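#onboarding

Welcome to the new folks! Below is a worked example of what a typical request in this channel looks like: someone posts a single protein sequence, and someone else replies with the predicted structure as tokens. Don't worry about understanding the tokens yet, we'll cover that in week two.

Example request:
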Amino acid sequence: MSPTARGALALGAAALSALVLPPVLSVFALLAVGSGIVVDALGARRAPEVVQELPGILARGVPARLSLRSDSDGRAVRLRQPRLADVAIEPQEGDGTLDAQVIGLRRGRHTLPTPAARVVGSLGLGCWYHRPGEPREVAVYPDLPGARRLAIAVRTGRFRDEGRRSRGPLGLGTDFESIRDYSPDDDVRQLNWRATERLGRPMSNTYRVERDRDVVCVVDCGRLMAAPLGDRTRLDAAIDAAVAVAAVADEVGDRAGVLAFDREILRRLAPRRAGARAVVQALFDIEPRPVDSDYELAFRHVGESKRAFVLVLTDLLEEAAARPLLAALPLLA
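Example response:
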């Protein structure tokens, strides 16, 4: 309970009236104004019902809509949604309703504070502050729109550099299929020199694009990944890349998995079909820790599985940091 700006001005005017009125009248005026403020505030004591609409999942850096609605019953209600350091809200206040943009600035789980409501009495002299509702948890995911755009580009055949000619989906493939006559559009790597020499004319190998591959993203979460990279960290960039790779794997029919590590294994997800959602769930709340990364430990766990395409996402700022990685690489062979 507190006076409004109008109530404060009325109290000030009653106090100044002592300069021109007898003391008894001034005291009476102060009591009258003070009583009016109390009575007015008590009339605003009933808490309004506030309905909050907010997605439970945000993508880092992507605006989402926050809506607050109150049943004011004719009363003047000022709504405010407190913000967090890692979740931006603009604007934060509104009269009766609040339509705002919410932007998750940092991956992970965050709890938005309970909205605040200031109800003003019918006289406009006093108000009552309420905290209707409950705190709201939101999950801030990596850059999902970017991953979806990449997957759509692969699906529609637009995943190539501008001006370069497409030669089939995602390269030549590695599974040998047959030998045929050479075509001018063939890549020189397709030439079968033994068949060309034997038959006396150019011959080419044809390959099938591999399907049902296992794709494993190995994400370093050690101290070097905490270094800033624009408006994010290197770990943010690595997780964005892992999510994009998993989305493309879903699109082309591969199985996606992930392993996150520093000096120990933090998360491990075996490759699976339609694994992009599981990869996001496994990585979105991981933060870098101030420890050195154990590449040998991570590669030993990856080497236990069957043949797979392994993508290591790390950052090597100095030559000394690359030595443990190079020493551990034979474990992936």
